[in-house]
Amino acid sequence: MTPDTAAFAHRNLPRLLLQAREAVMAHTRPALRAHALSDQQWRVLRVLGEMGTVETGRIAREAFIVGPSLTGVLNRMERDGLILRETDPADQRRTVVRATEQGMERVATLAVTIEEHYQRLEQALGKEKLAELYALLDTLIEMEQT
């Protein structure tokens, strides 16, 4: 069967999810760049802003950044004064990360911009449809992880 004759019954869901991500991020990236942050650095700061002090493995899972890439991201963020890394007092083999005051200031500033975008999404889609979208995505994630 050639690509011309291949028949898929369903749309390309992974591609649609990536397109949706990129469409949403297109509104967020200018604010991130204005604060000299990459997408990955923002994901780390968002995790730290929501969770406080976090072990590096958990950051990798929550921010969807593979270990070797996370090391580079954290190195740059530490150099820029956004985070501090410390040995976990409960387990000397682990490293924990927390946002500095400067990092938390960026989280607070960017949260305003990002929440404004979410408000526009809610106005355009309606509160119920946005809640339904969140619920469908949560269900999809849960289904695919089992």
Describe, in plain words, how this protein is organized in 3D.
Helices cover 68% and strands 12% of the residues. The chain has helices at 13-34, 39-51, 56-63, 67-79, 101-125, 127-145; strands at 54-55, 83-88, 91-99. It is built from 6 helices and 3 strands. Strand 2 and strand 3 (91-99) form a beta hairpin.
Spatial order of strands in the largest sheet: 1-3-2
Q: Helices and strands, in N-to-C order?
A: HHEHHEEHH
Count of beta strands: 3
| Major beta sheet summary | 3 strands, antiparallel
Shape: globular
Poorly predicted ranges (pLDDT <50, ≥5 residues)? none
Observed structural traits:
146 residues; mainly alpha; Arc Repressor Mutant, subunit A; three-stranded antiparallel sheet; 6 helices; globular
Secondary-structure map:
Blueprint: H1 13-34, H2 39-51, E1 54-55, H3 56-63, H4 67-79, E2 83-88, E3 91-99, H5 101-125, H6 127-145
Antiparallel strand pairs: 1-3, 2-3
Helix pairs in contact: 1-5, 2-3, 2-5, 5-6
